[in-house]
Specification:
Elements (H helix, E strand, L loop, with lengths): L1 E2 L2 E3 L10 E2 L5 E3 L5 E7 L5 E5 L4 E2 L3 E2 L3 E5 L4 E5 L2 H4 L8 E5 L5 E7 L1
Parallel strand pairs: 1-4, 2-12
Antiparallel strand pairs: 3-12, 4-11, 5-10, 5-12, 6-9, 6-11, 7-8
């Protein structure tokens, strides 16, 4: 599991650097303008999951966010602190992938 470095998009633009998605998942520091850009270069859809820590009303688990990235597709997924920051993991948000073959990811911030 890798912690993705957040790349800032500045006024004159950004040529982002992408990393291979980690088989065990990745982590990122959430922020109000932070998002992950997931590119699926494979021939089948994948599911990206951002677990939502904590419970509603003390006993009902918060629902995780799942995003489908189509074959040869891409998605930009916002990662705000609420609800994704995990206090038990230094405030980082976790990201998992149903498959990592031909999948690259970048963490970006405006």
């Amino acid at each position: 599991m890798a912690t993705l470095s957040i790349q800032a998009i500045v006024a004159d633009g950004l040529d982002p650097t992408y990393a291979a998605a980690s088989a065990g998942g990745d982590k990122v520091k959430p922020g109000k303008t932070t998002f992950v850009h997931v590119i699926n270069g494979g021939g089948a859809s994948i599911t990206v999951t951002l677990p939502t820590p904590g419970n509603y009303y003390g006993s009902v688990a918060n629902p995780d966010l799942t995003v489908t990235v189509g074959a040869s597709g891409e998605q930009m997924i916002p990662v705000p602190p609420t609800p994704f920051a995990d206090a038990s993991d230094s405030g980082l948000a976790s990201i998992t992938y149903s498959d990592v073959t031909s999948v690259t990811v970048a963490a970006l911030r405006i």
